């Protein structure tokens, strides 16, 4: 209860500071909360915003995240089972973890067509190392003695998966997925912005060109709401999985 109250107070305080700062600046530099809210409502009610801007970007981010999960899980399981494989891919993993997202996005734009394929591959390349490490650490967290007892007492494989394997893996994979989802949306927007692909990136570019700062703030709020929603869903999944 105290945390919720603190959150509300913090939100009100932030909005108050925002409104006060906006009152002393031009709307093109810093619009106030009310104009941003109006722009947000306009965007949400526009059908073309959903079909031409938001949904294409979400689709690319989801496809990149799914691709990263497939390869990250495969490499993570292989590296956990055979450490030499993990060592083999360690240099590439370090490169991808250390490479700034804008540089990788530019390289993918140069190498590929600059469309959806570029965005998906950029997202996947940046997230594969994160998910690979999470899967490997999650597998290492499995209680081997508990698993051996389950074998001795002939616990069904499905129940072993639910009670032993999944909770252990989820301790590392859950937080990694929360980070990955947020980064998938950020990298999607960045790559679209650099490549000129239609979507959130192009929408942000247009707001900059036309000095529609209120619309830019509205787009930022939508992105933050998407990240917050997915983060809340993944956070809620943790206790449910542990209780199974």
How many H/I helices? 10
Task: Give a short account of the largest sheet.
Answer: none
Structural class: mainly alpha
* Radius of gyration from CA coordinates: 22 Å
Percentage of residues in strands: under 5%
Runs in which pLDDT lies below 50 for 5 or more consecutive residues are 239-244
Protein architecture, described:
The chain has 244 residues and is mostly helical. It has 10 helices and no strands. The chain has helices spanning 2-23, 33-45, 47-81, 83-98, 101-111, 116-140, 144-152, 157-195, 200-209, 213-243. Helix 5 packs across helix 6 and helix 5 crosses helix 8 (157-195). The chain is globular and about 70 Å long. The two termini are 27 Å apart. The model is unreliable at 239-244 (pLDDT under 50).
Question: Main attributes?
Answer:
244 residues; disordered C terminus; mainly alpha; 10 helices; globular
Show the helix and strand layout:
Layout: H1 2-23, H2 33-45, H3 47-81, H4 83-98, H5 101-111, H6 116-140, H7 144-152, H8 157-195, H9 200-209, H10 213-243
Give a quick summary of the entry.
Helix content is 86%, strand content 0%.
């Amino acid at each position: 209860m105290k945390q919720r109250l603190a959150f509300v107070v913090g939100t009100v305080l932030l909005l108050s500071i925002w409104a006060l700062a906006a009152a002393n600046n031009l709307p093109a530099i810093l619009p106030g909360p009310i104009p941003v809210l109006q722009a947000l409502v306009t965007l949400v009610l526009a059908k073309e915003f959903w079909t031409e801007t938001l949904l294409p970007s979400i689709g690319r981010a989801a496809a990149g995240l799914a691709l990263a999960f497939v390869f990250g899980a495969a490499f993570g399981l292989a590296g956990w089972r055979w450490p030499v494989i993990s060592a083999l891919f360690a240099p590439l993993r370090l490169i991808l973890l250390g490479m700034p997202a804008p540089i990788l996005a530019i390289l993918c734009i140069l190498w590929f067509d600059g469309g959806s394929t570029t965005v998906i591959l950029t997202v996947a390349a940046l997230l594969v190392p994160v998910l690979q490490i999470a899967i490997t650490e999650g597998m290492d967290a499995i209680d081997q003695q508990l698993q051996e007892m389950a074998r001795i007492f002939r616990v069904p494989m499905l129940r072993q998966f639910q009670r032993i394997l999944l909770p252990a893996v989820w301790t590392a994979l859950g937080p990694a997925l929360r980070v990955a989802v947020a980064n998938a949306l950020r990298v999607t927007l960045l790559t679209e912005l650099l490549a000129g692909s239609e979507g959130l990136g192009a929408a942000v570019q247009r707001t900059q060109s036309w000095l529609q700062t209120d619309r830019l703030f509205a787009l930022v709020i939508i992105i933050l709401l998407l990240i917050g929603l997915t983060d809340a869903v993944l956070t809620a999944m943790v206790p449910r999985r542990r209780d199974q």
